[in-house]
Write a structure and sequence with these properties.
The chain is built from 18 helices and 13 strands. The chain is of the alpha+beta class and 498 residues long. The longest helix is centred in the middle third of the chain and has 31 residues. It is a single-pass membrane protein. Its main location: membrane.
């Protein structure tokens, strides 16, 4: 090839590259993307995005990006071009258009550890079927008839072991409570039994891997979690085989073990073994992790707000006295419905603590919103925490103020507009077709736990400066050590709390 031909080939190649680049830039220009910074190649801005920060804030990364680019900005996170939304309207729009314009899209590592049939990563019909099973099992009727008593029993079991003046981790106690409840609720496993304790320790290892960097090398948290996953699945599979044997021996009609989720799924679905295992593992994860963090957050926020504890105590003493007078034992649904201020405390704990800070979605089509384009295939992160902590929506958002939830619907009150705006923008359990299936159970757990806590104990932080951190999952790095004092003016009967 002559020099001239080589020169012509080179220049035409360069020209072609320039044209392609120009076309790409023009296409990007034609698409009106939100402002933002794509960061480094591949890793983008992920490291800064995931840096731990105080859970009652949105963190420096979000604050700087919102002040620089506004509430909708582009970035490169988790290895993909991403639109981040701190905009309440866009968040609602994304969740309401689930399956039409957007779909769930978690990083592959999450699917690797929770399983490909996990409710968190499933989309479409299969997700709908699994969600229906979970919703039926946690229906309002079951909450009233079965679960309320279970929740109270497990609450008393944990609180009854607290010793006067002793110091212990409130976070660990909350985890013990929710784990025992879920193990019982899902597979009829009894608290304190060796197999339950064994499952719990495997589960703790598993949880550390779910939230760690997905590095599958010996010695990493992720690799250890994958090992724990198979141990947990063995236990679940063992329980499943026992149950199927029993059902075959006695005939399906006679086995009335619909009291746990495993029995329910075996009887009311035709899922494969692998699907059932992943479903149970993901519900164990969802039902244990988020509720325990919420309870620890309530304990933390309430110790800093004595006025709220006082008002809670009045509400629960009234319920207790009425029950005593009627000679009734144990809480019932009517008692739960009387816990009005408790619901305000629960809402405020979820708003300020933000257990689920954001979710992962992906655009299924090119979408236009408020003059911006969200290109098909891009990741979208609706950040609920940014809305819950927005001073334009919530007055003094950094303040723990349960009273802001009172009279939310009262017409004519001067605050009705701002409270209704607040209610519309309150999404602790997500929204749309993927609204958390266990949201009612989670609120019930918190209410029953708070009932017995305020009636029986005063508590204080055993160490200063214990604020929760977001990693991005929320945790108290030191486990939230507290010191408790019995309220002696109440009678303890048969070693049971009131």
């Amino acid at each position: 090839m002559s020099e001239l031909e080589l020169l012509l080939l080179l220049s035409s190649t360069i020209l072609a590259l320039v044209l392609i680049y120009d076309l790409f830039k023009r296409k990007e220009k034609a698409l009106k993307l939100p402002p933002g910074n794509m960061g480094w190649p591949f890793i983008g801005e992920t490291i800064s995005y995931l840096k731990p920060y105080s859970a009652t804030t949105v963190g420096d990364f979000m604050e700087q990006h919102i002040s620089r680019y506004g509430k909708i900005y582009k970035s490169n996170l988790f290895g993909e071009p991403t639109i981040v939304s701190a905009d309440a309207g866009l968040n609602r729009f994304i969740l309401q258009n689930e399956g039409r314009l957007f779909e769930c899209s978690y990083p592959r590592s999450i699917g690797g550890i929770l399983g490909k049939w996990s409710m968190l990563v499933l989309v479409g019909d299969m997700h709908r079927d699994m969600r229906m099973i979970s919703l039926n099992f946690m229906s309002n009727t079951r909450l009233r008839t079965h679960l309320l008593q279970e929740v109270e029993m497990h609450t008393l079991l944990v609180l009854g072991s607290w010793k006067e003046n002793s110091v212990f981790s409130a976070q660990d106690e909350a985890k013990k409570f929710t784990f025992n409840l879920m193990a019982r609720h899902i597979m009829s496993m009894d608290p304190g039994k060796p197999e339950t304790e064994q499952l719990k320790s495997e589960y703790i290892t598993f949880m550390k891997g779910v939230v760690s960097a997905p590095l599958n090398f010996p010695g990493t948290a992720y690799r250890r979690a994958l090992k724990s996953r198979s141990c947990i699945l063995k236990v679940i599979e063992g329980k499943m085989e026992e149950r199927i044997e029993k059902m075959n021996a006695e005939g399906c009609e006679k086995v009335q073990n619909d009291d746990d989720l495993l029995g329910w799924v075996l009887k009311h679905s035709n899922f494969s073994t692998e699907q059932i295992l992943d479903l149970i593992l993901s519900l164990l994860f969802a039902g244990h992790e988020t509720s325990s963090v919420s309870i620890a957050l309530a304990i933390y926020f309430l110790q800093g707000c004595p006025k709220a504890v006082e008002e809670l105590r009045e509400e629960h003493l009234e319920i207790f006295r009425a029950k005593k007078q009627a000679g009734e034992l144990g809480l019932n649904w009517e008692d739960y419905k009387k816990m009005d201020f408790t619901q305000c405390v629960i809402n405020e704990t979820l708003r300020l603590g933000n257990v689920v800070r954001f979710v992962h979605r992906k655009a299924l089509k090119n979408v236009r919103y408020k003059g911006y384009d969200i290109p098909c295939g891009w990741k979208v992160l609706p950040v609920f925490a940014a809305v819950h902590l927005d001073p334009l929506i919530y007055d003094q958002p950094q303040l723990f103020n349960p009273w802001r939830w009172q009279n939310r619907t009262s017409k004519g009150s001067s605050s009705s507009f701002s409270s209704m705006t607040a209610t519309n923008n309150f999404m602790p359990f997500g929204g749309g077709p993927r609204l958390c299936a266990g949201s009612e159970l989670a609120k019930l757990e918190m209410a029953v736990f708070i009932h017995h806590l305020v009636l029986n104990y005063n508590w204080e932080l055993a160490e200063p400066d214990q604020s929760p951190l977001a990693f991005p999952f929320v945790e108290f790095p030191n486990g939230l050590p507290i010191k408790v004092h019995n309220l002696h003016h109440h009678h303890h009967t048969n070693n049971k709390l009131i």
